[in-house]
Design goal:
By secondary structure, the protein is an all-alpha fold. Helices cover 86% and strands 0% of the residues.
């Protein structure tokens, strides 16, 4: 649930960064550069998120990712007309998406134990597909009613709702000490 709530905004910007600013930034070459920088953020920041996760744990990393997502989703509307700032925000949101990809499998093992966690990870991975599909539905259907900025605010609300879920959850299931597959 938390992964779905927190990843929708990341997937929304990841898949629609060009569509969102097509009226403000008319340089397709620069928009392509933004996509490349976003992809680099997604891939290269995974190393950083992994190190941070190893030092602090799931809850801290997830709260930092959610904080960055909140910042980006709440300010992207204003940065859309400033190409360099928009590039930084697309980089940040893609870095957060990479961070979610890093912490999900490890957190699954940590929360549910080795045996159950490996089985549940497949369910977690499908949640990313659902989040991406929800973003598509938002853009194709909801944008007609509330506009793209409205969709961003819906995703911002989802991220903000997931912050207390992460903060108050224990993230320790009854299977945590399962060591049958070590």
């Amino acid at each position: 649930m938390i992964v779905l709530l927190s990843s929708c905004g990341c997937f929304l910007i990841n898949g629609n960064y060009k569509t969102y600013v097509k009226t403000a930034i008319h340089d397709d070459k620069f928009l392509t550069t933004i996509g490349v920088v976003g992809a680099v953020g997604n891939g290269c920041c995974r190393f950083f998120w992994n190190l941070f996760f190893s030092k602090t744990g799931f809850k801290t990393v997830c709260l930092v990712i959610l904080s960055i997502c909140t910042l980006v989703l709440s300010t992207i509307r204003f940065s859309a007309s400033i190409p360099e700032l928009y590039l930084i925000e697309v980089f940040l949101i893609n870095s957060c998406l990479g961070g979610l990809f890093v912490i999900t499998p490890t957190a699954s093992l940590y929360i549910y134990g080795n045996r159950t966690g490996t089985n549940i990870y497949g369910v977690y991975w499908s949640v990313f597909s659902v989040a991406n599909f929800v973003g598509y539905i938002y853009v194709s259907q909801l944008s007609k009613l509330i506009g793209f900025d409205g969709i961003i605010y819906v995703c911002l609300g989802m991220v903000v709702c997931s912050i207390p879920l992460v903060y108050f959850s224990k993230f320790q299931g009854p299977w945590k000490n399962d060591t049958t597959h070590l």
